[in-house]
Each structure stands twice: as structure tokens, then as C-alpha cells.
Design brief:
By secondary structure, the chain is mainly α. The protein contains two helices and no strands.
Length: 58
């Protein structure tokens, strides 16, 4: 069973993807403010998850 941090980071990725699929302002190169916020949340959670994984493998 995935842990909470992993689920949150995956949910953030899905939220960003869902937003950019429907947003008429987002392109492959430009994000609207909402997409920027969602992407930042995804990056922060992913970085935290990967850092924790690296600590476990040492």
C-alpha cells in the first residue's frame, strides 16, 4: 500500500495534468497561474518523496 506522501505527489501530478488538458491558456511552453501553482506543488511533493527514498536506500 503506497504511503501518504507518494499518494499526495501522484494526486498533484494528476491535478496538473487534468488542469492542462482542459485549460485554454496553457500550452506546451507556457503555464497559466493555476497550472504554475499545481506544478509547483507537484515538484515540491515529488522532491520530498524522492529525497526520502534516497535516505532509505543508504
Amino acid at each position: 500500500m503506497p504511503d501518504d506522501l507518494y499518494r499526495r505527489y501522484q494526486a498533484a501530478a494528476r491535478a496538473h495534468q487534468a488542469h492542462t488538458t482542459d485549460c485554454t491558456h496553457c500550452t506546451d511552453r507556457v503555464r497559466c497561474p493555476e497550472a504554475t501553482r499545481l506544478w509547483s506543488a507537484f515538484e515540491r511533493l515529488q522532491d520530498a518523496y524522492l529525497a526520502r527514498q534516497r535516505k532509505r536506500t543508504r
